[in-house]
Amino acid sequence: MAETRGGGGGGCCPPMDLMRSEPMQLVQVIVPMESAHLTVSYLGDLGLVQFKDLNSEKSPFQRTYAAQIKRCGEMARKIRFFKDQMSKAGVSPKLILDKDVDIDLDDVESKLGELEAELVEINANNDKLQRSYNELVEYKLVLEKAGEFFASAHRSATAQQSEIESQQVGEDVLETPLLQEEKSVDSTKQVKLGFLTGLVPREKSMVFERILFRATRGNIFIRQSVIEESVVDPNSGEKAEKNVFVVFYSGERAKSKILKICEAFGANRYPFSEELGRQAQMMTTVSGRLAELKTTISAGLDHRKILLETIGDKFEQWNLKVRKEKAIYHTLNMLSLDVTKKCLVGEGWSPLFAAPEIQEALQRAAVDSNSQVGSIFQVLRTKEMPPTFFRTNKFTTAFQEIVDAYGVAKYQEANPTVFTIVTFPFLFAVMFGDWGHGICLLLATMYLILREKTLSSQKLGDIMEMAFGGRYVILMMSLFSIYTGLIYNEFFSIPYPLFAPSAYECRDASCSEATTIGLIKTRDTYPFGVDPVWHGTRSELPFLNSLKMKMSILLGVAQMNLGIIMSFLNAKFFKSAVNVWFQFVPQMIFLNCLFGYLSVLIIIKWCTGSQADLYHVMIYMFLSPMDDLGENQLFPNQKTVQLTFLFLALVSVPWMLLPKPFILKKQHEARHQGQSYAQLDETDESLQVETNGGSHGHEEEFEFSEIFVHQLIHTIEFVLGAVSNTASYLRLWALSLAHSELSSVFYEKVLLMALGFNNIFILIVGLLVFIFATVGVLLVMETLSAFLHALRLHWVEYQNKFYEGDGYKFAPFTFTLVGNEDE
Length: 823
Fold this sequence. Notes:
α2 (66-89) packs antiparallel against α7 (276-332), α15 packs antiparallel against α16 (577-608) and α19 (659-672) packs antiparallel against α21 (704-728). The chain is α+β, with helices and mostly antiparallel strands. It is built from 23 helices and 13 strands.
């Protein structure tokens, strides 16, 4: 199938064609050094050239523009630093870009350096002030809590002293001198105790106390006081719950042990005086310094915020400029230096239609850079496989991504997306058919579509991002679900006579519990979809089972035939007569003599109302082809037709297997004996034929055994796949039935049961359960399930008939997404 294209496309680009990849060509550009930067910049704006790396043998440090990339990397680091600082300060960068204003990279570099140095200095000063402030806050807490402890101890000691003195009054005078002498002796033996105060993290306080006790063998006295509010630790800068402690000890050895333990536990120590006057003076001093520091820190933060807002005004502009420059120099490093070192030579793939635009960009760059020599543009001939390029829009992109997830189409191979746009949502809807649920999906999708401009510029979650990206796929799925729901006549499992009254009426009052024998046809057949009278009868399930199972087989055989027809279109396009006669023809015969025949029998049975057993017909067509059909005969001479089809199906297997390898071997020998040498064509199709027209890519090294084994595997796969793939399409019936039954259970066992209680509370609860079950199970889980099954039917059952998918995407150098990329 030749590439067809309308000639009257508007604008710079011809009309989009999804059937085949855009014709590609390998181009070479020779650019003078003085205009190289501007040339690559203009080509990046154009976004239609995929450069090849001509310096792949060189390391990144050996390339021409390694120093410039390092410079851009340093600027990108500063910009990331600014972004992090703005994020912490809650400053948003200005989103409006002055795209017409061109800024110089040297100016950006110097400005970024100045701003970084200023911001680093402000941060360092602020950190020092904040650390001092946090230390003073802790010190103030120590003064308060330890002061309370010492004050209470002093009051307790005073009370004990007065009690002792009162007890001494009235004792014998003769004993007094002796007691006074003893007291004077005891006072000389008193030991002066030292003490340390500070704060320890609360979660470590018990361990801290235990370790101190063991290290000093119990020769300490410790008191702790809980601080109700969290305090900011001066060292880590994080909030922590702490306790104030006072440790009394005796001796320098004990003191040194305590200091080491405090250091190990991260306990901050602060000086403290026993004198009450000194304590009050220290408290006043600390409070004054805290007020001063608070004012200074506030002024510093205001200055920092003003600086960050200044950066935010130009942030996006600088960010885009640096990213563009880095991308340009990365691309320039892919170009090779001319021997004279005055020119750069680049090679790359571009679409055929882009040649005039590329040449115009080269000329414009030469003029704007005041180059005395223009750039040279020429097309190269090659046998290398070109990349695949489909021009998609916002509607077709998601469908193309579904196909590309399986594999990127080989260059000029027929693109499954053309039919997937319709078949994928339709097969989904066959499994999801309910026009009530379809309307719910449609409303959710319309919200995404109507707000797509707003949502496209926002950061969405992973699941929401996927749903937004596939909004047009979901739109088509919802529309087809409404269509199939109308055919099944199900609205949240409830049938409605939308198009006409039912064609049947009941014979008696117990009709709903009877089979269809209890119904009398009184009107014309229901015009569209399933007659609503079937719902609720005993024969509903057998009737819908039979209908949906046969419909699944018809749809499956139709789509597999479409896949084989696509293989014929590929063979015609690549001018491969071997694939037409020894692949397409026997495959069509085999599939349609068996399962195409089954599809015809289904349609005949529907039209005639016959009671023939199609299982029996198909099984005994193989086991006993000569037996009479008896009551299972659907049309005259059916036995002869079946024998003919069976014979053709058996003949088609060796037809697929044997001739093709021998014909390819003969063609290979003929080429290498000089019988098929011919001058290269001058048309653009020569590239297509050379790169894709080969049988299996074994033109240089032809191994007959490999070709034969490959053909054997392909034949076995197709023969067995014809059976298994047809059976696989029965998932359409199974999932459709499951969806319908689940919907019916939620309606009858939740909603109707809640209505039957005549209680407003139970009704509200039942309604909520019904809504959550419908949304959670039917609109989320069932949607995902049907989506995955439709995906499998396309990837395995449909695409394996023709789609190789061993190409690679066209990835041009473009600035379109540079601003959104993460480093």
